[in-house]
């Protein structure tokens, strides 16, 4: 049994299937983990979610990305579809509410193996992986329980942008969502939301999260994340693995095998 971690799928079902086949993924033995943003910009969001759900919980798990959370909010009428998203066939399908209930049980951070940590955006530099997993559980409790609507209504916003252990309620949950699903650059541990480019061409005062000193991060940990297509897999750190390589933008989809440390990719 092998564990594979796939980058942002973004509704590109055919690309996903080709990639899994090329890597030798065995749906009866292996487990696929996803870094989130399963759906949205690509043409086959419905096919993607049905396939992943059908793998079953022994063979698939995912963290939620910003697009996945946005889909859950839209399903509850809290947010409007974005014109660039191709979600109509999914949202009209008879299984839509069932798929949304399933997605709503997913976490924002996971530990697929002893040394490994997955979230959509990465690890905020004031947190250990253990702390991020605990904070993810706080969000999951709000997202899957009776407070779901209240949580979704208060989820959007860019403040607070710096972590503080004393944060409570909506502000605390909003920060955790933003750090685990939207983070790219920081300025003195403050999240910055506008800049999406490669670090080489970013404003000087901004630091990618993975280059911000994190005294809580143990040296043997391996962080896998997506969300940042313009990195194209480059972090210059073998323990920080960027898996969003922009398949939906005509580039490639990436898949990492935890046991063999092999990286597979599928060209768009
Ligand atoms: Mn994203």
UniProtKB/TrEMBL annotation:
<comment type="similarity">
    <text>Belongs to the Ap4A hydrolase family.</text>
</comment>
<protein>
    <recommendedName>
        <fullName>bis(5'-nucleosyl)-tetraphosphatase (symmetrical)</fullName>
        <ecNumber>3.6.1.41</ecNumber>
    </recommendedName>
</protein>
<dbReference type="InterPro" id="IPR004617">
    <property type="entry name" value="ApaH"/>
</dbReference>
<dbReference type="InterPro" id="IPR029052">
    <property type="entry name" value="Metallo-depent_PP-like"/>
</dbReference>
<dbReference type="Pfam" id="PF00149">
    <property type="entry name" value="Metallophos"/>
</dbReference>
<dbReference type="InterPro" id="IPR004843">
    <property type="entry name" value="Calcineurin-like_PHP"/>
</dbReference>
<keyword id="KW-0378">Hydrolase</keyword>
<dbReference type="GO" id="GO:0008803">
    <property type="term" value="F:bis(5'-nucleosyl)-tetraphosphatase (symmetrical) activity"/>
</dbReference>
<comment type="function">
    <text>Hydrolyzes diadenosine 5',5'''-P1,P4-tetraphosphate to yield ADP.</text>
</comment>
<feature type="domain" description="Calcineurin-like phosphoesterase">
    <location>
        <begin position="4"/>
        <end position="154"/>
    </location>
</feature>
């Amino acid at each position: 049994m092998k564990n594979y971690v796939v980058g942002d799928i973004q509704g590109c079902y055919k690309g996903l299937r080709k990639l899994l086949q090329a890597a030798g993924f065995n749906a009866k033995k292996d487990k696929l983990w996803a870094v989130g943003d399963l759906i949205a910009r690509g043409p086959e969001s419905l096919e993607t979610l049905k396939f992943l759900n059908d793998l079953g919980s022994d063979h698939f798990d995912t963290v939620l990305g910003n697009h996945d959370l946005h889909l859950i909010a839209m399903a509850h009428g809290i947010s409007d579809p974005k014109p660039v998203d191709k979600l109509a066939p999914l949202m009209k399908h008879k299984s839509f509410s069932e798929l949304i209930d399933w997605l709503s049980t997913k976490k924002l951070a996971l530990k697929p193996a002893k040394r490994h940590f997955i979230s959509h955006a990465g690890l905020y530099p004031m947190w250990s992986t253990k702390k991020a997993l605990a904070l993810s559980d706080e969000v999951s409790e709000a997202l899957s329980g009776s407070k779901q609507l209240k949580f979704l209504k208060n989820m959007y916003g860019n403040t607070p942008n710096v972590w503080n252990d004393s944060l409570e309620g909506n502000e605390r949950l909003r920060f955790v969502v933003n750090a685990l699903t939207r983070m790219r650059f920081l300025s003195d541990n403050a999240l910055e939301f506008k800049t999406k480019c490669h670090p080489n061409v970013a404003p000087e005062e901004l630091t990618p999260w993975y280059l911000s000193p994190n005294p809580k991060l143990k040296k043997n940990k391996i962080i896998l994340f997506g969300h940042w297509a313009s990195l194209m897999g480059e972090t210059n750190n073998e323990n920080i693995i960027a898996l969003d390589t922009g398949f939906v933008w005509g580039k490639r989809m990436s898949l990492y095998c935890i046991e063999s440390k092999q990286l597979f990719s599928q060209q768009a």
